[in-house]
Amino acid sequence: MFKANGSEARLYAKDIQVKEGVERNKAIDIIIAFGGEKDIAGKWYVLEKDYKLRYTSPGKRFVGKGGKMVHVNLDKVLDKIREYFGNEQASFKLVKRDDRQNWCLRLNGASVKKVDTVISLGTKEKALAKEIESEIRARFRQTAIDGIVPIKTESFMYDWLGKQENVLAITTYKRYRAVLDKVVKVLPEEIHLTKSIHIEEYKEQLQCEGYRPASVILELDVLKRIFEKAEKKNHIKKNPVLGVKKPKREKPKVEQYTEEELGLIFEELERRTKSGLRDQCPKAWAVYNEIFHCMNNSGLRVSDAKSLMWEYVDLDESMILVPEQKKTGKPAVIRIPTEYKQRLEKWSKGKMRKGLVFPNTEGNEVLYCRMDSAIRLVLKSCGITKKSPNHSFRHTVAMRLVRAIPIHEVAYQLGDSIETVIEYYVKPQIPTLESIDKAFQNGNGKKKNSDEKADTATTGETTEVDADSKVAFGNVMDDANHIENKTDENDGD
To answer: CA–CA separation, 274 vs 289, rounded Å?
Structure first.
């Protein structure tokens, strides 16, 4: 393959020979069929984007002598054969009838049929007709070998989406629907015929239309989920999306909130909690306010904060247990500040302390889209701009902790690995002379004085949860350890 500066990629005869496994003359016929020509040096070539049409069309394009091209919609041919024979074994052969110019497939009469049926292959060339017949037989054989249950791509995809309607948020459902509306136009009619090259072509089409890497990855993830379901139901042998490389994207920079910004945000939240246009509005904003306070004082992700249960909150020990984080699947035990503990005690007054800590007005878990809309409305009112307003609370907490306690304690508090904390929250900086002197002070044979011993908590030595706290936390801590051990075993597998 050759690509000149400022030109499109070209495929020469030798490239087609390798891709198709054919002789040179056949490769040249294929090039001619797809609008190829000779270059200045007299070598036959075709543009790569034109050649890909051979695989991205609903059927398949067969090339005869002199580059004459025959387009056969194999999906429709296979449908006719299956419809004719039903559950019986298919039997057909290549014939040339006197009343027809083109070669045909004759479907030998099944037991429930009295008359044979013929299907035109659209070519007068016997060699090309044999090639088409071989392709049809190969597809039947492969379907039988793989145990594939043929099904229409469009019907399967929309049926899958219909079952997700009550599970997905409205905006997510609309986004998924838009993906399917585009992709069904470029994929084969039957889902088991979809290959990685079809998905690759769709990915390139999105990139040419100016889609950002994040949007392309989102669409590929939707298709991956659909084909995973198709694979489980034996509609397809292998998920074609797995063979497609995702485009690289830059990790979004998550900004932390300043203390001044936090003051404005919570002031606006309080204002919205005390006023509203409807009866339910103040109550809803009160819940949003408490969830954001929780995230700002614990570092919980929004998915974990809105699903927090009272049974995993120990106010006596100022601790919150997350048995299984939504993102990582691993447990986390989090200390909360005394000031927030008092706020949480106030929030719990008059409540049974059962079920969700922050239920919505109907007693159910708050939807993420509601949380996202709420914080964006607040930021707009305050004149603050953040790309990831929800996650900025976690980032803010992480930066507070990094400045105050050792890295390994930060990782434990956030429920992250030490590597993740270092990658996202620790930035290289020039140490002060005082910090260097302090670091080497004990390496010169000097004994620690009482003040230095008191500072060991800030130099990276491990601090353990005291025994009384562990006993007081009771079965909740045991559950966390059990989940963590189970997770480690799975990681080992």
So the answer is: 11
